[in-house]
Amino acid sequence: MLLLSETGQFSTRYADDRRVFRLRQARLGIIALLAFSYLVVPLWASDYWLSAILIPFLVLSLAGLGLNLLTGYAGQLSLGTAAFMAVGAFAAYNFQLRVEGLPFLASFLLGGLVAAAAGVVFGLPSLRIKGFYLIVSTLAAQFLVEWALTKFGWFSNFNPSGVITAPPLSVLGVDLSSPAGRYLLTLAVVTVLFVVAVRIVRSDLGRNWMAVRDMDTAAAVIGIPVARTKLLAFAIGAFYCGVAGSLWAFAYLGTVEPHGFDLNRSFQVLFIVIIGGLGSILGNFLGAAFIVLLPLLMSNLGGSLLGGVIDPGDTENLQKILFGVLIILFLIREPEGLASLWRGLRARARVWPLRD
Amino acid sequence: MSAAAYPPAPVAAAPLLAVEGISLSFGGVKAVTDISFAVRSGEICSLIGPNGAGKSSLLNVINGVYRPQQGRVVYDGVASMRITPRRAARRGIARTFQNVALFKGMSVLDNVLAGRNLHVRAGWFRQVLGLRAARDEADGHRRKAEEILAFLHIQAYRDTPVGKLPYGLQKRVELARALAAEPRLLLLDEPMAGMNLEEKMDMSCFILDINRDFGTTVVLIEHDLGVVMDISDHVVVLDYGRKIADGAPAEVRDNPDVIAAYIGSAH
Ligand SMILES: Nc1ncnc2c1ncn2[C@@H]1O[C@H](COP(=O)(O)OP(=O)(O)OP(=O)(O)O)[C@@H](O)[C@H]1O
Ligand SMILES: [Mg+2]
């Protein structure tokens, strides 16, 4: 029995050919996965798993998606991811604070839009510079945003510590401040935004992004408005990061603070995108799972294996080294990321048990 | 490919493109010096000349990739001083490059669809929402792209990433992408370079078909003089950045300056 058999499944209209999940099996699979995540997980998973693993996993996937749209699809390198997350989080917080009765989802959306505006501003240098130089200019964004959020008390409502407690979440009067509630809210936002992203990269805009990424002179010659296309990538990528930032603060940490969005966070999201696969939507989930789960696995294993031999401070350093080595080894073997590993498996499953 | 079996596209008297007194230099290197010529609507015009004669540079001036120090380009009756590649594309000028300039990470179909971007009406937001009009429009572009793939016999490679195709097919995909824009003027920089005889025959037929079926005016750079003499209505010869001959293929072939330039060079 061929599990992924395509027999009898023809595309007879262009619209069929454009479907994201062209195979019936794939559609059933995704429905099962969604049902599992929405119905089974919130009932089954422990509070620890929900709040310490699944929520950050989802939020980091979303941030990875934002960076992937910008870098993997449009080819614009950026180390400003955490800056855009911070702008989103602080903007959402300030909208909550200053607009009476504004629903949470609306403030996340507004936070994303403010981040998008910041993305356009910090994306302006991309009209002139590329590659390494662009990294440096987005790095400037990273430092500038962190500095501004710490320096000007207005952003954190003049809270002396700069760390603000986020208000408890609720949507349409339903209290969502429990771990399961926060998980479901995050999952819902992430689901919607992933669907939108899939549609964007398959639209003409997505095609223009890839054209600009692969060869911007040729893109201009066939009439693609290169500057507009790049800035839209910054805007939309930063929007995604901004919403991810709001979720990070409101649904995960429960606090809003600039230092949660430092350069390390930008690098973390960059690793997610590289490990998951540049120019892949699914890769963001895979990369985020890798980044979130691997340290956990290592500390559990390390704790039981080396518990008595090495003191805890050293195991932590050892973990970081091991983590780095694993990433390097992985990228040498699979430079196109986990997503390409997945594509390979799927291609083999299509003809299994035959070999191609 | 006898002339009788292949009636050419009707050639109008008025020029679609006139290059007037163009000079272009890179620092001290004079790539093009004071060149003028006109291309009539509907004709196939070949630019020939030894390596480094300035042919590609001239093509780059015509669609605004390079800005000349002197002279102007008149296209469709409008003289533009500061033409940009995008503006040229919007006015109906499409081209291919000497070194294939495809979008390497994209499939053949996506490359061709990208070539249609100027015809896309629905904005990205409407496409994301999946509105009926946007979907119908996408079907239309897909149909057009499929027509072009069929025309150039590359339907079978529709979903192949272009980076994986052999060179000869990449050249064809690049032509397909240019055609997708439905251009009035097609600039082809050595579309047959590196091809064997058979592939050259195919490509020549495609160019003739494009010219005849769609009435597209073609400016072509080509080193193979046999092909040039066969398919051109008009030949312009450059040598060291200057124009040394301009006329019908037969006239140009017998021009002593041209013979001297070709014998005096590596060709
Ligand atoms: N971007 C550039 N920068 C500097 N010099 C250039 C540039 N482009 C072309 N040149 C120079 O201009 C002159 C003409 O080059 P061009 O590429 O137009 O010649 P060509 O006729 O297309 O030659 P070929 O048949 O080899 O393609 C050459 O001397 C070349 O070195
Ligand atoms: Mg050339």
Would you mind describing this structure in some detail?
- The complex is a heterodimer of chains A (about 350) and B (about 270).
- With about 350 residues, chain A is mostly helical.
- Chain A has one domain: ABC transporter involved in vitamin B12 uptake, BtuC (Orthogonal Bundle).
- In chain A, about 70% of the residues lie in helices and about 0% in strands.
- Chain A contains 14 helices and 4 strands.
- In chain A, the strands form 2 sheets. A two-stranded antiparallel ribbon of chain A has the order 1-4.
- The longest helix of chain A has 28 residues, at about 225-255.
- Chain A is globular and about 65 Å long.
- Chain A starts with 13 loop residues before the first helix and ends in a 5-residue tail after the last helix.
- In chain A, about 45% of the residues are buried.
- By secondary structure, chain B is of the alpha/beta class.
- Chain B has 2 domains: about 1-90 and about 220-265, P-loop containing nucleotide triphosphate hydrolases (Rossmann fold, 3-Layer(aba) Sandwich), CATH 3.40.50.300; about 95-180, P-loop containing nucleotide triphosphate hydrolases (Rossmann fold, 3-Layer(aba) Sandwich), CATH 3.40.50.
- Chain B contains 10 helices and 10 strands.
- Chain B is globular, with a radius of gyration of 19 Å.
- The mean pLDDT of chain B is about 90.
- Chains A and B meet through helix 1, helix 7, helix 8 and helix 9 of A and helix 2, helix 3, helix 4 and helix 5 of B.
- Magnesium ion binds near residues 55, 56, 98 and 189 of chain B.
